[in-house]
């Protein structure tokens, strides 16, 4: 398969073709995925738990993410690969966000980066996009900050949460993301959000109505 890019992924979404995306953290599994029709690979910071034995995603470092993503890139040269920006790599300033995103792209060969949050994080997204790096947003359940909103839980059931998710999508789209990941969002809420979004909406634990 020809490797996807931001435009070809947007073309799939525009024509109603579901986009497929799996996580991967190491070379051997990446070689298997490279031989499939899978559209994208995410090197998630969950690799810190799955592959490195951390208790959660909080301790994961940029060096660890680059190490994992580099192995996946070597195993899957023909796939569009997204690298997860770990906690502490982008929150402090636009400078940190751009510097670490640039490291990800240059040192691991990722095609895009993903980061959690909206509101003030939209400024970080814009800075990274303005530097020429494609960005995917991540809202709903955001594991890096889950302790601040009651732990791992479904987001979008309680009063006002759908409005906040709608606002978050708008903020991230204005900042320049080409796609947004909804995690642990009720399927019907995810449908409303997907139907009204301008960007590609991915779901993980968000039902069947997202774009991929």
Rounded average pLDDT: 92
The SSE string, one letter per element, is HEHEHHEHEHEHEHE
**Low-pLDDT regions:** none
Q: Compute the CA-based radius of gyration.
A: 16 Å
Helix % is: 40-55%
The tally of beta strands, per DSSP, is 7
Instruction: Provide a count of the helices.
Output: 8
Descriptive notes:
The protein is α/β, with parallel strands linked by helices. Helices cover 40% and strands 16% of the residues. The chain has 8 helices and 7 strands; from the N terminus they run αβαβααβαβαβαβαβ. It has helices at 6-14, 27-34, 47-50, 62-75, 94-108, 121-130, 161-175, 187-196; strands spanning 21-23, 40-43, 80-84, 112-116, 135-140, 179-183, 200-204. The chain has a 7-stranded parallel beta sheet. The protein is globular. It starts with 5 loop residues before the first helix and ends in an 8-residue tail after the last strand. The mean pLDDT is 92.
Short description:
The protein has about 210 residues and is an alpha/beta fold. It has helices spanning about 5-15, 25-35, 45-50, 60-75, 95-110, 120-130, 160-175, 185-195, and strands spanning about 20-25, 40-45, 80-85, 110-115, 135-140, 180-185, 200-205.
What would the keywords be for this entry?
alpha/beta; 7 strands; 7-stranded parallel β-sheet; single chain; 8 helices; 40% helix; 212 residues
SSE blueprint:
Blueprint: H1 6-14, E1 21-23, H2 27-34, E2 40-43, H3 47-50, H4 62-75, E3 80-84, H5 94-108, E4 112-116, H6 121-130, E5 135-140, H7 161-175, E6 179-183, H8 187-196, E7 200-204
Helix pairs in contact: 2-4, 4-5, 5-6, 6-7
């Amino acid at each position: 398969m020809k490797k996807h890019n931001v435009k070809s992924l947007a073309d799939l979404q525009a024509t109603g073709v579901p986009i497929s995306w799996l996580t991967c953290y190491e070379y051997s599994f990446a070689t298997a995925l490279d031989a499939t029709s899978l559209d994208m690979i995410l090197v998630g910071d969950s690799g810190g738990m799955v592959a490195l034995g951390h208790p959660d995603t909080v301790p994961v470092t940029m060096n660890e993410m680059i190490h994992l993503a580099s192995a996946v890139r070597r195993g899957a040269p023909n796939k569009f690969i997204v690298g997860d920006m770990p906690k502490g790599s982008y929150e402090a300033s636009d400078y940190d966000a751009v510097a670490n995103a640039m490291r990800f792209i240059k040192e691991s060969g990722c095609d895009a980066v993903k980061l959690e949050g909206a509101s003030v994080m939209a400024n970080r997204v814009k800075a990274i996009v303005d530097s020429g790096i494609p960005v995917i947003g991540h809202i709903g359940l955001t594991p890096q900050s889950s302790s601040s909103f009651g732990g791992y839980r479904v987001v979008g059931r309680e009063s006002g949460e759908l409005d906040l998710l709608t606002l978050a999508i708008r903020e991230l789209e204005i900042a320049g993301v080409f796609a947004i990941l909804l995690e642990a969002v009720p399927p019907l809420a995810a449908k409303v959000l997907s139907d009204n979004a301008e960007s590609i909406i991915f779901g993980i634990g968000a039902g069947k109505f997202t774009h991929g």
